Amino acid sequence: MSTIKFSIVVTAIGVIVWAATHWLGIDYAYFAGYTILQLIVLSTAWNILGGYCGYVNFGTAAFFALGAYSTVFWYKFFPMPLPVLIVLGSVVSGIVGLGMGYLTLRLRGAFFSIATLALAVVLQTLVINWDFVGGSRGAYVIHPENFELAGLSVHYIEYLFVLMLVLAVIALVTARTIERSQLGYGFATIRDDELAAEACGVPTLRLKLIATTLSGAFMGMAGAPFPFYIGYLQPQSAFALDYAVNSIAMPMIGGTQSWVGPLIGTIVLGSAQQYATVTISSAVNLLIVGLMLVAFVIIAPNGLLGLFEQLRGRKKP
Amino acid sequence: MTALLHVDNISKRFGGFVALDGIDLEVQPGERLGLIGPNGSGKSTLVNCVCGTLQNEAGNVLFGGEKMDGLAAHQRTHRGLARSFQLPRPFHSMSLVDNLRIPLLYTVHARSGPLRTAADIEARCADLLKMVGLAAKSRQRPRDLTQVEMRKLELARAMAAEPKLLIADESMAGLSHSEIEDILALLRQLNERGITIILIEHIMSAVMSFSQRLAVLVSGKKIADGKPEDVVRNPEVVRAYIGQ
After folding, report:
1. How many Cα neighbours within 13 Å face the side chain of A281?
2. Nearest CA-CA distance, residue B105 and chain A, Å
3. DSSP strand E in chain A: where?
4. pLDDT in tens, A115-124
5. What does pTM read for this prediction?
6. Which class does domain B5-242 fall in?
7. Nearest CA to CA, how far is A91 from chain B (Å)?
8. What does the domain layout of chain B look like in residue ranges?
9. Measured between CB atoms, does B111 come within 8 Å of chain A?
10. What is the pLDDT of residue A121?
């Protein structure tokens, strides 16, 4: 399927999801849907660097929080429409992603991961000590009750939901386009063998920088609307461990070598989490992630996609 | 005639260990050079310095008259320097076709020339696989290959970059006699197409039959360079290999 066709299909599915949620008419559906869509963007973004290139980033929360705090900053400094803030958030996170790439990409394996974890700690410390964006007290970002455009008025949460739906579509289309392009082949060679990649003429450093920048930008994009969603943003919630763990676990469970993996993983895990939040408690979320991750590492180390491929391979004579 | 590759007095250390100690080497266009030496004599380090995997600390590497020092490995590949690895390093997650597609996309496609469309690239991959006799396995993964097939894939991938100079680093180690003949025939075929070849090898019968010239490294120094028959009779070379 060509990229244009794929974009149309994904957009159509997006519209159907929106229509179905709208038809339900429950605000909670938007809240839950927003969380899952946000995780789709995050895990897809993580997968660009972690799945395609094989560089495991533990700092998702840092990039997400950068996007969120960029919004808080502009909200206080010079209020602008949310779509503009999303662009700004992704630019900030993308630049930090590029910087992080320059500083850390000579490291491999666990050392790279530790460096990204350190980045999250450093950024959180900076934010805690930055009074303008609320410091450790946090900051209120009050959204209007309704979003109005050209005489149309919807609940603000529905507006946020639709925005996040658009971001998810953008992230998925981008990830799939990369996967099938020259860039995607280059990323895969980095994952497989960097030395051999260089010998084949692949400019590995440049490609890795592209990956960290893109990955960071998408994470920031997912974080930018978050202050409006939550209303009160504090460092602990923006830099929460959940984001880092979820954005790694979801692609791992779905399968990291294709754009579908993070999507499937997020839908499975994200829905389970939302269900648990309503029926048991929100604290059980991370337990579910942990248990599922352990189970998948044992049963299907290549995720659901890998498991599916294995089963299909067995059926063939 | 100016040399295609000119290695000028290069040195490389690893901590206190001198791996290369002032090596000079010239390779003419179209030549078949054998490079031999005992284990640990610096052959692979020399290849790594020439190809940019390692950077030499002293001296220069000139390729086609252009200084290579400071250039990354992929930039040297773009200029026409290709290598195969001692232990095959295929891209494990990709099919054989895709393994060959990488140098075509990133090296040949990047130069201005033919290979413009996806179909061109596809056809070129098929040609290369046919040349090394792996056409039937084009959709399989490297893990399905035997040792000799893996070496052939390694050579095909180096060839895919359309190099002027190919450095084959021990591409026959561990192969049977007939398999060695296979690889040698392949290398000769490439040389006939005008590609300069440096063959690094321990198997003397293969080196002797293939090379027009032989260079010998011992402990990071070049101790002999000349006609194969003369070099193997050189007392210093005999001493290095057999001992006194």
Report:
1. 3
2. 7
3. 139-140, 146-149, 152-155, 232-233
4. 999 999 999 9
5. 0.90
6. alpha beta
7. 28
8. 5-242
9. no
10. 93
